[in-house]
């Protein structure tokens, strides 16, 4: 049901009756729910921290799955620590089963001393000591939790009116700032520069508490004219800003997302951030700046430095300056310092700049009329936490993924004045301006460069990027220990998760297995998965796959001669989730609980759903194929933007922004009218509004519809799936229908598929299941009962990798569907499961184990000396031609499909496993 409906949020929290839920979900769902009978109590679910118990109170949001038919949609949940102590919590629905029962629930808890583990059960949730309140007032929305009060604008260029604590203004006049220039850096001409402000156009309250409140603001950036902020007529980069406030927390969480709609050769972004004013009341020597590093270090200095002087002010003064506490009264200082300290420099401006993933610097200056001291501090990776204020209070700020999404910076100005300014730069103006043009003005062909580039298609139009920020209203300068704690909270936010067996037992995300090491062969398969995760984790660091637009992606294929991934070679460069890399990572986490896999998977999901997907413009709802530029590929396809692999992250983290982006993929239906997938492969046709392949195109659309159906209960989306299933079941060739990989007609309005009567059984169907198609269908078949389609799918699975004599016996002729053994091993084994045929199940395993691309990689080797600039690890490969025709066999496609095959085969045909 709609997330902004009364039931979808407040009704669930208030315990709205099941009858109301069923009425909304529609008569067919009501009938199913009624027939199902009463549901039982939700099982007691143990939750634990992903990476160990946090050192300090943390605010965390997570999702929990529930087996079909077991949990009523109006259930209330209670949370308790391992010792049984109730913890204030808030819950809401994320997804429903077809019978109206709860499939996924979202949860959050109040900030409190963290327990080692928690239990979630049915019951009345504990109330927080101070509930979060949201109040709609004239021209603004006010949020309060008894500690922090936030005022948000309903309109205008001042997004955050103020942030206060205990009646004291901690920060005010918060603005979204955009800096652009009309030419890239490094050209002969001097670029003209422009300043813009984010103007609020809409405000929506998404949650009202009692444990968490969420307000969503949205608008566009408009150009400034002098002091008239956002007064320009042109609006660009539409944005959303979600503000979260939780009970017991002294901070607010902010998630900013923008969509690119500017002109790529005229609008070069040189700065993007959030700027706030901070009142400064303490004496200059009692004002402090703090920055944290990811290693637990702290850089901290006062605005007026009293240490290192020619004369000693006294041990207590020096200690206070270092600790950030109030110094003794000047009357207690040594006479020489007391009489001359006001002549000392006042450090007015500071900047923490992360220029690469491997280096940050701290610089400071006394005024804009003086030079910067650029050697004030330095290090490898800053955590993204900073503090500006004094001993009587100030503001803590945080930018998540600070060093991973460089260039970023925290800039402070006016620290010596009555009102300072802090800017959280998600893209820092200290770096070169963004240049989003494609890497070349010419295409280089599929034949050698594996590049599918088409004129006008290598555009970032519609891609997006989100940034998570935190603002703390602090009563005093935080201790250095507290700075380190807050830095960890920013750099690696705490996450609650359940045990792998709990996720597996809920029956979500298709067919997957828990680890099996019962034989030496299976143990080796499990070790190969672990080695691959460790290898890619190391490659991300060694190859520095970081940056504002790049972080979260990995490379596609390796060049063993250069000892480098093919970063500059057409379609071999950035992977863009090709062949299910993101799904591989999520299944690894689900079955093992590995925090490394979780972090990598979440970063990749964010990247795929933002950078690799077009959310507006000509390609809205489609994603871009792998390329040197993330959005450079000419193949704009639903297989990249589909919701199936994004659901892992959405349901496990209850991320509202990701929910918005998944819903955006529904635009693909209409966009395929303008940009059909096979427009260059086949001549035009007029038998249907547009044309697509059953797999992966239609499967991707099915995943979008399925996701929207389970999130909303709106059966219109289910009906689109049923329509296509029945159409395919009516095709004489079933899933072997169509030329060019399964081309059929498609009507976005009715969702009907049309048999174009061309190429049945004659095409290569190698991509049909390559993008988690089998998982999408397996999960959908459990939700939608269309027996004729199940038989059609089973027919495809039974004969896709069958020997010639079996195909001739079934169809009367032989044909070669051109399938990759590893990719189709799963459906072959599934056919054996459905038909209770051990021979077919064994065939599935044999197709996998005999495929060179399915064999585990050997251990990586170190390459050093003059062969490379710096030592690297690589997978040793023999020069041979694999099924893709590639020159070398080391590629992410193989790693992803190998793991996906293991994960599924162990679930479907465990008795036939090695």
Radius of gyration: 29 Å
Task: Report low-confidence residues grouped into runs of 5 or more.
Answer: 1-37
Q: What characterizes the major β-sheet? A: 20 strands, antiparallel
End-to-end distance:
45 Å
Overall geometry comes to: globular
> How many DSSP-defined strands?
37
Beta content: 25-35%
Portion of residues within helices: 25-40%
The pLDDT mean sits at 93
Oligomer: single chain
DSSP helical segment count = 23
Helix-and-strand structural type:
alpha+beta
Task: Please give a quick description of this structure.
This protein has 914 residues and is an alpha+beta fold. The protein has 23 helices and 37 strands.
Structure description:
The structure is a single chain. This protein is an alpha+beta fold. The chain is 28% helix and 26% strand. The chain has a 20-stranded antiparallel sheet that branches. A hairpin with a 2-residue loop joins strand 23 and strand 24 (393-399). The radius of gyration is 29 Å and the shape is globular.
């Amino acid at each position: 049901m709609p997330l902004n409906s009364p039931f979808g949020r407040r009704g669930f929290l208030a315990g709205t009756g099941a009858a109301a839920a069923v009425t909304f979900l529609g008569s067919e769902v009501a009938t199913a729910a009624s027939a199902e009978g009463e549901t039982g109590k939700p099982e007691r679910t143990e939750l634990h921290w992903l990476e160990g118990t946090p050192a300090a109170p943390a605010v965390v949001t997570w999702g929990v799955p529930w087996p079909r038919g077991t949990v009523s949609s109006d259930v209330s949940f209670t949370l308790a620590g391992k010792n049984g102590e109730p913890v204030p919590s808030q819950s809401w629905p994320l997804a429903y089963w077809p019978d109206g029962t709860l499939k996924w629930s979202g949860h959050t808890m109040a900030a409190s001393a963290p327990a080692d583990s928690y239990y979630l059960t049915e019951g009345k949730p504990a109330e927080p000591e101070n509930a979060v309140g949201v109040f709609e007032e004239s021209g603004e929305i006010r949020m309060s939790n008894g500690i922090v009060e936030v005022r948000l604008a309903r309109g205008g260029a001042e997004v955050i009116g103020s942030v206060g604590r205990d009646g004291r203004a901690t920060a005010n006049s918060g603005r979204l700032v955009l800096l652009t220039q009309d030419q890239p850096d490094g050209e002969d001409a001097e670029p003209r520069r422009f300043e813009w402000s984010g103007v609020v156009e809409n405000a929506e309250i998404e949650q009202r508490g009692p444990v968490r409140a969420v307000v969503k603001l949205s608008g566009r950036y408009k150009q400034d004219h002098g002091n008239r902020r956002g007064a320009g007529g042109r609006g660009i980069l539409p944005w959303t800003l979600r503000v979260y406030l939780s009970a017991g927390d002294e901070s607010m969480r902010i998630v900013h997302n923008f969509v690119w709609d500017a002109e790529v050769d005229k609008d070069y972004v040189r700065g993007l951030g959030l700027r706030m004013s901070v009142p400064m009341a303490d004496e200059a020597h009692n004002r402090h700046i703090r920055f944290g590093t990811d290693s637990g270090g702290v850089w901290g200095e006062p605005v007026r430095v009293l240490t290192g002087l020619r004369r000693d002010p006294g041990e207590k003064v020096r200690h206070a300056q270092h600790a950030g506490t109030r110094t003794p009264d000047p009357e207690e200082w040594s006479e020489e310092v007391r009489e001359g300290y006001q002549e000392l420099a006042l450090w007015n401006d500071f900047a923490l700049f992360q220029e690469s993933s491997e280096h940050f610097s701290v610089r400071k200056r006394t005024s804009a009329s003086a030079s910067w001291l650029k050697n004030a501090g330095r290090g490898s990776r800053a955590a993204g936490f900073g503090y500006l204020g004094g001993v009587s209070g100030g503001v803590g700020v945080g930018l998540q993924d600070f060093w991973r999404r460089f260039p970023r910076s925290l800039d402070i100005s006016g620290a010596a004045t009555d009102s300072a300014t802090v800017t959280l730069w998600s893209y820092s103006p200290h770096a070169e301006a963004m240049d989003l043009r494609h890497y070349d003005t010419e295409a280089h062909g599929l034949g050698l460069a594996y590049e599918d580039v088409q004129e006008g298609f290598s555009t970032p139009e519609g891609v997006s990027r989100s940034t998570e920020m935190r603002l703390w209203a602090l009563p005093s300068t935080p201790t250095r220990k507290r700075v380190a704690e807050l830095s960890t909270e920013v750099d690696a936010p705490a996450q609650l998760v359940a045990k792998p067996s709990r996720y597996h037992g809920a029956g979500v995300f298709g067919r997957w297995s828990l680890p099996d090491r019962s034989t030496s062969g299976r143990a080796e398969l499990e070790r190969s998965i672990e080695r691959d995760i460790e290898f890619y984790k190391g490659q991300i660091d060694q190859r520095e796959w970081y940056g504002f637009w790049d972080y979260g992606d990995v490379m596609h294929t390796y060049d063993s001669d250069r000892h480098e991934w093919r970063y500059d070679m057409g379609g071999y460069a950035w992977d863009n989730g090709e062949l299910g890399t993101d799904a591989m990572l999520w299944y690894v986490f689900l079955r093992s609980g590995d925090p490394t896999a979780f972090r990598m998977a979440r970063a990749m999901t964010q990247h795929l759903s933002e950078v690799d997907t077009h959310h507006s413009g000509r390609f809205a709802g489609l994603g871009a194929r792998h390329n040197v530029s993330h959005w450079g590929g000419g193949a704009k396809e639903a297989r990249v933007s589909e919701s199936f692999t994004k659901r892992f992250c959405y349901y496990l983290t209850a991320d509202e922004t990701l929910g918005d982006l998944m819903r955006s993929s529904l635009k693909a239906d209409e966009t395929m009218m303008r940009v059909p997938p096979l427009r260059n492969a086949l001549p035009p046709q007029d038998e249907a509004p547009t044309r697509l392949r059953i797999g992966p195109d239609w499967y991707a659309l099915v995943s979008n519809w399925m996701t929207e159906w389970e999130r909303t209960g709106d059966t219109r989306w289910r009906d689109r799936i049923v329509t296509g299933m029945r159409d395919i079941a009516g095709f004489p060739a079933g899933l072997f229908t169509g030329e060019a990989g399964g081309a059929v007609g498609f009507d976005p309005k009715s969702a009907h598929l049309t048999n174009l009567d061309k190429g049945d059984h004659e095409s290569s169907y190698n991509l049909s299941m390559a993008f988690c198609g089998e998982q999408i269908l397996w999960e959908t078949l459990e939700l939608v009962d269309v027996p004729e389609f199940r038989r059609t799918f089973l027919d495809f699975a039974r004969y896709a990798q069958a020997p010639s004599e079996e195909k001739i016996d079934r169809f009367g002729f032989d044909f070669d569907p051109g399938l990759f053994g590893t990719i189709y091993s799963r459906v072959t084994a599934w056919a054996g499961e459905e038909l209770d045929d051990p021979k077919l199940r064994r065939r599935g395993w044999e197709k996998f184990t005999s495929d060179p691309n399915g064999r585990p990689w050997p251990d990586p080797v170190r390459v050093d000396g003059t062969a490379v600039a710096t030592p690297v690890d690589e997978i040793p490969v023999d020069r041979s031609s694999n099924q893709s025709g590639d020159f070398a066999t080391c590629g992410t496609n193989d790693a992803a499909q190998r793991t996906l095959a293991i994960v599924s085969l162990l679930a479907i045909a465990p008795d036939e496993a090695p």
